[in-house]
Each structure stands twice: as C-alpha cells, then as structure tokens.
Amino acid sequence: MGTLRELQAAIGSAMLGGDAGAAAREIEPDGLAPDARLEIYRHHVLTTLTSALEATFPVICRLVDRRFFAYAADTFVRAHPPTGPCLFEYGDSFPDFLAAFPPCRDLAYLPDVARLEWAMSAALHAPDADAMDPASLTDLAAEDMRRLTFAVDPSVSFLDSPWPVDRIWRATQDEDGASNDPVDLASGGVWLEVRRAGDVATVRSLAAADHALRTALARGGTLEDAAAAARGVDPHFDLTAALHSMLDERIFTSFAVST
Amino acid sequence: MTPGGGLGPPAPPSPIPHAPGPLPAACGIGLRAPHVAEFLASRPALPWVEVHPENYMGGGPAIAQLEAVRRSYPVSLHGVGLSLGSDGALDARHLARLRALADRIEPCLVSEHLSWSVVGGAYLNHLLPLPYTEETLAVVAEHVGRTQDALGRRILVENPSSYLRFRHSTIAEPELLAALVERTGCGLLCDVNNVFVTAHNLGLDPVDYLDALPAGAVGEIHLAGHAANDADGHVILIDDHGSPVAPPVWALYAHALARFGAVPTLIEWDIDIPELGVLMAEAAAADRLIAAAPAIAVATEVRDGHAA
After folding, report:
1. How far is residue B175 from each of residues A85, A115, A234, B134, B301, measured CA to CA in Å?
2. Which of B 89-128 lie inside 8 A of A, CB atoms?
3. ∠ CA(B251), CA(B44), CA(B24), 5° rounding?
4. What pLDDT score was predicted for residue B123?
5. Which of A195, A258, B117, B120 is deepest in the core (most CB within 10 A)?
6. Are B186 and B154 in contact (CB under 8 A)?
7. Containing H/E element for A247?
8. Taking the CA atoms of chain B, what radius of gyration do you get in angstroms?
C-alpha cells in the first residue's frame, strides 16, 4: 500500500460492502484473520447507519416490519452513504430509493409515507427563523401586491400524494393498533403541509388550491403566479382570504417585490 | 474543586456561572437524548456534561434544550464528525458549523478523535483506524492546526479503540499522540477504556501505554464499558459503551489518575442506555478515585479562564 489516500479508499470500499481484499492485505493478522477484523468495523458502520434511518423513518419500519426495513436500509446505506456527519440530515433520498426498490413494488404508497416522514424530520431540525410582521405589508402599493414573493419558514414543506398518507401515518401511532379503523387506500389523494410547532412536527391537510398557492410561493413564485396556479385548481379561489390565513399563521419570514 | 460524590438531592438551578472557565476535576456524564428532558427537570448534581455537537447543528428543540442545559452546567463538545485523519481537506462546512455552535454554547472543552470517517465524500459514521506513519502524523497535525485556528482555541484529541493494526505502521500510538501535542499544541483526551480495549486486542501493555503519554497534555479522561466478543476462538473486546466500567478499567483509571493528576473525567454510555441514576453512580465512583488523586499536574488550558 502506498499512500493514506489509497488505504482509505480501500477501507471505504470494504466498509460499504465492496471488495475488502486490498484493505485486508494491509492488516496484521495477529491471530485473527484481517477480514474478521475489518468485519468488526463494517458491522458498526452498517448497523449504526441503519439505526439512523430507523430513527428518521419509524413508520416505514412499522409498515414493512423491522427485518425487511433492515434489509432495505442496508441496501440503501451501501449505495447512498451519508455525505456529512449530522445524521438527522441523512435519508433525503430514501423515499426515492424505496420507490425504485423491487421488493417494495407492491407497496405503492410506501415512498409517499417515507416522504411525509422525511418532511416531518426535516421540519423538526430546520433552522429557527422569526416570522415577518404582517403589518410590514400595509404600506405596500397596490400594484406591487401581485409581484410579491415570500421566504417561507424553513420548517414548512408541502406534499401531495394519491394515497391517504397522513391517515396511514396516524394509524401507526397507536401502539396496539386495535382502536384504529383500517385505512381505505382508495379513499383519495391528500395535499399536506408539514411544519414545526413548538417541539413537534405537525401535519395538516390543505385544500388542493391552497396547496397549489403555497407550493408556488414556497418555490419563490410571485403572488400573481401562485394565485394563477390556485385558480387552475379552483376557479373560485379566494386569494385575499388565503393571503390573510398565511399571514395569520406566520408562515412567512420575509417578503420582497419582484422586479 | 468539586468534592467527590455525585449522588444526592437535586442541585438548585444555575449553580455554575455561564462564563467558560476551567473544568472542576470531577466526573461528568455524556448527556444523551433519552436523558435530556429528565436532566433539565431534575437538575442533577453533576459538575459538567459532554455532548456530540453533530446532534445540535440544526434548529428546533434540540439546540434549545442544549442551551437550557448550558445555562446551568459547563458543556464539553465532543466531536465525532471532523475526520481529522482523512487524507485531503477538512469538511469546511462542518468546521464552520462547529465554530457557530461553539460560539453559541461557549463549551468548556472541545475534543475530537485520532481517527477518520470520510472518504470520497462519504461519511462512514465510525472512528476508523489510521496507519501510524509520518504521513498520517502530518495529515492529522495539519487538520488539528486548522481546527484550532478556526475555533480560536486548543482542542483535545482522543485515542481510539482499535481492532486491527496496519502492517506499515512505524510509530506507536502514544508516541504519535505525543508528537501531535508537540507539533500543534493540542491537548489529549485519554480514553482509559479505549487504552484497555486496544491493548487487549493488539497485545500491548495498557500501563506502558499510559506511561508513554505526555502527562501534562492530558486534559480529560473518558470511561465507559466494553463487551467481549468471541471471533473465531479469539476474544476481541468491543468498545460499545453499553455496560458499566469494567473492574480492570477502574484499576487502569487509578493508574492514569496517579500519573496525570486529578483530571476532569467523563462517563460515556451509548447503547442500552440505563436510567440517569446509573450513570450518576458511575460518576460518583470515579469521583471517589479523583478525590484520592494528586492535584492536577498541569491545568486544563482554557482561554480567558480563571481558577475554579
């Protein structure tokens, strides 16, 4: 072995389930096979990262059972290891991985439940931010209103799904599951807003048009463009009422007038 | 100095001033998520706590709780994510986040590990072993220097627990740590359980290991439990932080205190975490040994600190 760089590349491969031969050749046996020594490290890497995913996706873990989750997570970790040391930020691509994971093919709703769990985890850990004062809009010229853009609270995100993922999520919260009615998977789609409130992540259902408005604003769109998106869903959409609701909910941290 | 004996009635809030200062030579605990709410509610009589900064780099309830803890206790930031031993540059974003957290929390100590975790942009979530060579010493010294420059303070570097050694290592671990102290001015965090585990697994004498460390550089000691695993008929000790400190590790700790003086000590417990009282009893046992130890040989350096 030449350099530290080469050795670390070889061990990195061995840790993520790739070829361990190059790493093993650099290790003194000392009475125990080098690969058995590497396995101690590999086991820790894979099991602790699987545990990190389990902490972020507990509902997925319940829905598929723990052994299957460990199998899926192990496959995910090998292909998509974390890119940084803050493990609460690990797993953003796990929902897409589940969507493409052949053993999950029959559980079509699973990726969207995972997206909901990821949004809740992200909400819980999002940076703290102060809401803007609604009164700061009062001096705005009427012609500027349509060109308004907003920065949305970093803990807020939006999600839509053809599956009732919020009801699926709630159904898993009861430990014994006995008091829950079965969730009707055909009961229709949902438009959701996820946000941190106090110390917990909250989920609430939105009307489709409100979801369209808020999603467009969160992406940086102008109020005029966002209103058009909402009216595309509901021609009778009441923009004034919707804007007041968002200001009352303190969902924005700042505004700008787009030029 | 805080007298020995961590168990007792809950202390009143805010017994300790907020300003960073030298740690008392007494035993604290690693504060983990399952204990934080109880800790804040009961304010146990403990001299200090240590946390992993990587868990507090977002917003929301986690950092708010850490700030609440910090209002009443000295807090040490014990990093696991800098990857001091990785070839190539340190993760600048992570270092900046550590700096921001340190500015906010004003930790009594900042420490990291003689190990690596990052390769090719992947973070492997383990304190992986290094070959002990001049190249490694140069890489780690460079990264310790950059970290100390970024934080504007001295850090402590911890000896890892090892399950293997590399054929091309040419420097013994305590000598490499001594050279690191010499080159960077860093201090050492001596994990006595890690010394015991590594010595067993690699056939070294743990007392010789401790005696080879530069005594004046040791600013903190860690204690934890380990497990014994049978691997192909070969007993390997695993540093799992999942049980009480083992009797031979207590004995080695007494030797460490005799050599390093009454150094601030910490109990770590990370899997199968028991109730808080169990950790406090472990800390009280360490305090009894600290009380019998000579006064510290060299003060733990803390900038703008004053005598405790």
Report:
1. 29, 50, 73, 11, 22
2. 91, 93-94, 97, 116-117, 119-126, 128
3. 55
4. 98
5. B117
6. yes
7. helix A239-248
8. 18
DSSP B178-221: HHHHHHH--EEEEEHHHHHHHHHHHT--HHHHHHHS-GGGEEEE
Pairing mode of beta strands B49-51, A148-152:
unpaired
For chain A, say whether B52 makes contact (Cβ under 8 Å): no
pLDDT in tens, B206-263: 999 999 999 999 999 999 999 999 987 889 999 999 999 999 999 999 999 999 999 9
Across the interface, of A15, A36, A129, the residue whose CB is closest to B124 is A15
Token match 């997925």: residue? A60
Q: Is B171 an interface residue toward A (CB < 8 Å)?
A: no
With cut-offs at 50, 70 and 90, classify the pLDDT of residue A175.
low
pLDDT digits (tens, 9 = 90+) for A49-87: 999 999 999 999 999 989 999 999 999 999 999 999 999
For the segment A154-167, what is each residue's pLDDT rounded down to a tens digit? 999 999 999 999 99
Burial track A202-222 (b if 16+ CB lie within 10 A, e otherwise): ebeebebbbbbbbbbbbeebb
CA distance A100 to chain B (A): 22
**B85 closest CA partner among B118, B108, B107:** B118
Decide the pairing of beta strands B227-231 and B116-119.
Answer: unpaired
Cβ-Cβ contacts under 8 Å, A85 against chain B: 54, 80-83, 91, 94, 117, 123, 125
**Structure letter (DSSP) for residue B303:** T
- The ranges of chain B with pLDDT < 70 are 1-21, 296-308
ipTM: 0.93
- Angle at which helices A208-218 and A239-248 pack, to 10 degrees? 60
Whether B164 sits inside 8 A of A37 (CB atoms) is: yes
